[in-house]
Write a structure and sequence with these properties.
With 206 residues, the chain is α/β, with parallel strands linked by helices. 39% of the residues lie in helices and 25% in strands. The relative contact order is 0.17.
């Protein structure tokens, strides 16, 4: 699992690496981003959106360009620098969300909160706690939309893990919807899940 220094070193080549990847872990990457983007309600101009773990800002820039009021959290200084160059009017915060939400967003309300390819750095208990914390930042009717390496069932997870034995990252904790669903519901977090590729999906919390 990469730390902030690892992502800093990866930052300049990240987008090209993802674009050229086949199979796990980035199979369906751009389809996932499209799915997250299309779950945003654009009927109201300028929705306020928080992007958790925005990276180089590939999705974030689409939101920004379409008129969203963008906030973002990421722990990589280099990736934050790249995103700021693309989106000078956005509000980017360099912080490690695995240690909790930074003070700069705790009193801000959002119409949507998105996160792509970031929450697999949290274990399942921490994921649920963090999602519940994010839910408290939503305006009424808001949604949390999470796209990541994810699976609907344990058997689908195991099938993928066995198919990619050499490249599989055992340090990352991927969403398995059937395993996390009851914990989310017990916290009052209504959830749906859509499988997008063999190794990626989108979890929506309302």
């Amino acid at each position: 699992m990469l730390n902030d220094t690892g992502f800093d070193l990866w930052a300049e080549n990240y987008d090209r690496y993802v674009a050229e990847s086949n199979g796990y872990p980035f199979e369906g990457y751009y389809d996932v981003l499209d799915h997250v983007y299309n779950r945003i309600d654009w009927d109201t101009p300028g929705p306020k959106i928080l992007d958790v773990g925005f990276g180089t800002g590939t999705l974030t820039y689409r939101l920004y360009r379409n008129g969203a009021k963008v906030y973002g959290i990421d722990f990589s200084s280099k990736m934050t620098e790249i995103a700021r160059r693309k989106m000078p009017e956005a509000h980017f915060i360099e912080a490690d969300f695995s240690r909790g939400l930074p003070d700069e967003v705790k009193n801000v309300k959002f119409d949507f909160i998105v996160s792509t390819y970031a929450l697999h750095h949290l274990d399942n208990e921490h994921k649920v706690d963090f999602i519940a914390e994010l839910k408290s930042l939503l305006n009424p009717g808001g949604k949390i939309i999470i796209g990541d390496i994810a699976f609907k069932t344990t058997s689908e997870f195991e099938k993928c893990r066995l198919y990619y034995p050499d490249g599989w990252d055992e340090d990352e904790i991927y969403i398995v919807f059937d395993e996390i669903r009851s914990s989310l519901l017990s916290r009052g977090l209504d959830c749906t899940y859509t499988q997008v590729s063999d190794c990626a999906g989108v979890l929506v919390i309302e």
